[in-house]
Predict the structure of (Atlantic silverside) hypothetical protein.
Amino acid sequence: MRDFTRGVVLCALLGSVYASCPPRCECSEAAHTVKCVSKDLRSVPAGIPAYTRNLFITGNQIRRIGPESFKGLDNVTNLSLSNNRISEVESHAFSGLLRLRSLDLSNNQLAVIHPEAFTVLNQSLRELNLSRALYNHSSVMDLASSLRWSSLGNLRVLDLSHNSLIYLPSRIFSHLSGLRRLQLANNSLVALHNASLSGLELLEELDLTLNALKTFPEEGLRELDSVPRASLLLGENPFTCTCGIEPFALWLNASQARVEDADGLLCDFPASMRNTSVLAAGALTLGCHQRDAGADLALQTSYVFLGIVLGFIGLIFLFVLYLNRKGIKKRVYDLRDACREVWEGYHYRIEIDSDPRLSQVTTSADV
């Protein structure tokens, strides 16, 4: 009888554990883990156990995440929603996850990101993965607003790689004062400007590999210097080693300790410089300076010579006028008298035409 009672209790416990696991998901109370992987789910399943710390809902067809999606899951610390075709994340969608530290939204199609989409109470979020997550270029503006409004001061890692970003909005990271690692690899960034790295004084790693950076002008170098503690990765960019590369080449030679792949940075254009180390581009730029100085000197000399010639011509013209002053004066007077005679003749004809007696004579003649 006692064994039977134990069996009933065990079956009840197993049944309760099984019942607490959502359909088409796998639950492990011992590992505090729930996995709902590639089950064609259309929304976040209900009934996720409260013990869950690691929640993986990946490879499904979930289009939207809202405030009701994760209610009652106070213990979740790691949440993966990758590869779900998510297009919209509403404000406070993750606010109910009081202990959330890592959020993975990679490989989605985020087109609409509401201003407080990543708000988590207690600012517990430490890692945010948005690799291959943005649907198009316009969604980066939504992202910028969300990063400003979501209270992410304690965020340590942000991954924005593989998003085809062509620019970074001004001060997009200014509210991420605690960020330590920023991954911007494999985008299409052509420049750093408009204080896009402002507020990241504590940054320790910045990855800019595999972008479209051809050089770093002075503004771009100021951006890199605004994160003085960060180790930089700049490889696999199509650097153009013409005269404009000089500021970057000089900066790179002085900052090799910060640029981890400085020795591997190679020129991509022009063809004569291809695969040449950017560090060695200083020799080219010295020649540029010499050519530029010579060109400036020649241009200045040309301007001076032109000014002298024009001045000389002007003096000759004034001298000729002076020598012919009497003849010029006579011609002016003659022209004035001729104009006066023409005007008087014209005025006389007008008076004759307007004389009423003349009109009477004409009428009488007709009769």
